[in-house]
Amino acid sequence: MRDRRTLVVKAVLAKDRSGLDPVSAARSVAEDLGRVCADDSGNVGAREQHVAALYRHAAAVRTRMRSTTGGERVTLGERITAVCTRCADSATGLLDSDLLADEERREQIRVFLRAVRPEENPDPLSSRRA
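and the corresponding structure tokens:
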């Protein structure tokens, strides 16, 4: 089962997205990994990669925002807010689960969480709401 899950993640990451602009390519990877996570919530590798893909999507949107003005900049601002929220939710969900036991891998997820929600404590115990 673990090998199948790993192959699914590798296939998503290897998919050719060369014809897409950086924002669309990052979004495509995140969406594909999101579908894998929805189909198999126990696939910890997919969930880790999904958080990373959402972070890369946010970074790509931010890069594009720097070179735009006007209405497109407003639209990109709304998109980055939505992507950061999804990234934080995915990271928090993974940290709150018992799936990710390796502390080094948990810390990498915390790094992404701090990047998209720097104002919050990324400690998984404090992220749970009563």
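(Above: one complete record from the training split.) Residues 69 and 76 are 10 Å apart (CA to CA).
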